């Protein structure tokens, strides 16, 4: 695995927490040079540890032991400020605002390689391999529904499921319904920031869309259907219970 260190970002500070999480992003930009310029611009106050372009070239912009500025306001499994304890990896992709497209095989191959290396080095648990939308569901969509989480899981990176995704599935809950505390508790136990209110509120809606973006990938509404329930129950029983 070749890592290019030609570009170094000044946008970091000292890390005081143990690394236990990897956060995967997309760049939301169309040009590598523009991406590298932004991530290395001290005025931008944003960075990531790694950037992988569409040819699969891995650039390391910040040393692992430094705190890069990639996560923003965030939460996962009881921890906020995920910059403190995570490695941030940016994948070149125009994103939802600029013509969202599939990630390339070269990108995914390089991502698998760097993730496996980081997991071995820092003993990172599968449940702590997350997307930006997992840790900030109220404001982020990346890496998005085209990202192949199953491929990562097949390579022992992150969590996924083997539940069949049905084109039509009975809706169990939607806006303003009551009686969903069990769903909220299980989503919380996986890692999402969600209050146990027993009400299908705005926060619950945002978390459900993030959950579906990662584990279902179609019908990105906030409706909670039987397929959602089966996947949540599977993830809970395999990784939590």
TrEMBL record:
<dbReference type="Pfam" id="PF01471">
    <property type="entry name" value="PG_binding_1"/>
</dbReference>
<keyword id="KW-0378">Hydrolase</keyword>
<dbReference type="InterPro" id="IPR051206">
    <property type="entry name" value="NAMLAA_amidase_2"/>
</dbReference>
<dbReference type="GO" id="GO:0071555">
    <property type="term" value="P:cell wall organization"/>
</dbReference>
<dbReference type="InterPro" id="IPR036505">
    <property type="entry name" value="Amidase/PGRP_sf"/>
</dbReference>
<feature type="domain" description="N-acetylmuramoyl-L-alanine amidase">
    <location>
        <begin position="9"/>
        <end position="144"/>
    </location>
</feature>
<dbReference type="InterPro" id="IPR002502">
    <property type="entry name" value="Amidase_domain"/>
</dbReference>
<dbReference type="GO" id="GO:0008745">
    <property type="term" value="F:N-acetylmuramoyl-L-alanine amidase activity"/>
</dbReference>
<dbReference type="InterPro" id="IPR036365">
    <property type="entry name" value="PGBD-like_sf"/>
</dbReference>
<dbReference type="GO" id="GO:0009253">
    <property type="term" value="P:peptidoglycan catabolic process"/>
</dbReference>
<comment type="similarity">
    <text>Belongs to the N-acetylmuramoyl-L-alanine amidase 2 family.</text>
</comment>
<dbReference type="GO" id="GO:0009254">
    <property type="term" value="P:peptidoglycan turnover"/>
</dbReference>
<keyword id="KW-0961">Cell wall biogenesis/degradation</keyword>
<dbReference type="Pfam" id="PF01510">
    <property type="entry name" value="Amidase_2"/>
</dbReference>
<protein>
    <recommendedName>
        <fullName>N-acetylmuramoyl-L-alanine amidase</fullName>
        <ecNumber>3.5.1.28</ecNumber>
    </recommendedName>
</protein>
<dbReference type="InterPro" id="IPR036366">
    <property type="entry name" value="PGBDSf"/>
</dbReference>
<dbReference type="InterPro" id="IPR002477">
    <property type="entry name" value="Peptidoglycan-bd-like"/>
</dbReference>
